[in-house]
Design a protein that fits this description.
Elements (H helix, E strand, L loop, with lengths): L1 H12 L7 H15 L7 H30 L5 E5 L3 E8 L11 H21 L3 H23 L9 E7 L7 H19 L17
Antiparallel strand pairs: 1-2, 2-3
Protein name: Lipoprotein signal peptidase
Enzyme class: hydrolase
Function: This protein specifically catalyzes the removal of signal peptides from prolipoproteins.
C-alpha cells in the first residue's frame, strides 16, 4: 500500500511532457525550409547562395578555359579532342552565341547586360533549389560572355568573345554558350515536369477540411 502511494506521488511530481505549439511551429518551419515551401524564413538566402554558387562556378570555368585557349591555341588551327566530332579551334566572335548578329556588337552587349540583371533579380526571389541552379547557370554563362564584351579588344561593349569548341558542323562556341543553353533547357524541363518557380510541392491538393 505504501509503495503504491509513493508511486502515485512520483507520477504527480513528474508529469508527462507534451509537445507544445512552439515545438510544432519549429518542426513546421524546418520542413518548410527543407522542401522550399513558401513561408520558410531561411529559404531565400539558401536559394540565393545556390544561384551565386552556380553562377560563380560557370564564370570561373568559362574564364579559365578561355584563358587556356588563348594561351595555347593558334588561330586557324584545329586540335582534335574526339576525332573530328569535337575539336578545339580558336576564334573571336563579335556577334551573339553561335556567331549570330556579328555586326551588332554594342547592342548585343547591352542586351546581355540586361538579361544578366533580370536573371539576378529573379534569382533573389526564387524559392525552388532546382530553379536556383538553372538560373545561376544561365547567369554565369551570360556573365562570362559579358566579361569578354567589356574587357577584350577592340574595346568596352565592343569586345570580341573567345570561342574555341566545335562539334561537327556547328559554329564554334564556348563554355558560357553551353551553360546558357543547358540552363534554358533545364528550366524548360522543370516547367514541363511540374516544378514551380516558388518551390511549392507538385500536384498539391487542398486539405480535406477545406
Amino acid at each position: 500500500m505504501g509503495d503504491h502511494k509513493c508511486s502515485s506521488k512520483r507520477q504527480r511530481r513528474c508529469p508527462a511532457v507534451r509537445p507544445g505549439r512552439a515545438d510544432n511551429d519549429s518542426v513546421t518551419a524546418d520542413i518548410a525550409g527543407i522542401s522550399g515551401a513558401p513561408g520558410a524564413g531561411s529559404v531565400q538566402p539558401t536559394r540565393r547562395r545556390l544561384v551565386l554558387l552556380a553562377a560563380g562556378s560557370v564564370l570561373l570555368i568559362d574564364v579559365g578555359t578561355k584563358a587556356l585557349a588563348v594561351g595555347t591555341l593558334q588561330p586557324g588551327r584545329t586540335v582534335p579532342l574526339l576525332g573530328d566530332w569535337l575539336v578545339c579551334e580558336l576564334t573571336r566572335n563579335s556577334g551573339a552565341a553561335l556567331s549570330m548578329a556579328a555586326d551588332r556588337t554594342v547592342m548585343l552587349s547591352l542586351v546581355v547586360f540586361s538579361v544578366a540583371a533580370a536573371i539576378a533579380w529573379i534569382g533573389v526571389h526564387v524559392r525552388s533549389p532546382w530553379w536556383a541552379v538553372g538560373l545561376g547557370t544561365i547567369l554565369g554563362g551570360a556573365a562570362g560572355n559579358l566579361v569578354d564584351r567589356l574587357f577584350r579588344a577592340p574595346g568596352p561593349l565592343r569586345g570580341h568573345v573567345v570561342d574555341f569548341l566545335a562539334v561537327g558542323p556547328m559554329p564554334v562556341f564556348n563554355v558560357a554558350d553551353l551553360a546558357v543553353l543547358a540552363g534554358v533547357v533545364w528550366l524548360i524541363a522543370l516547367s514541363l515536369s511540374g516544378f514551380p518557380f516558388n518551390g511549392a510541392a507538385r500536384n498539391s491538393e487542398p486539405d480535406a477540411g477545406g
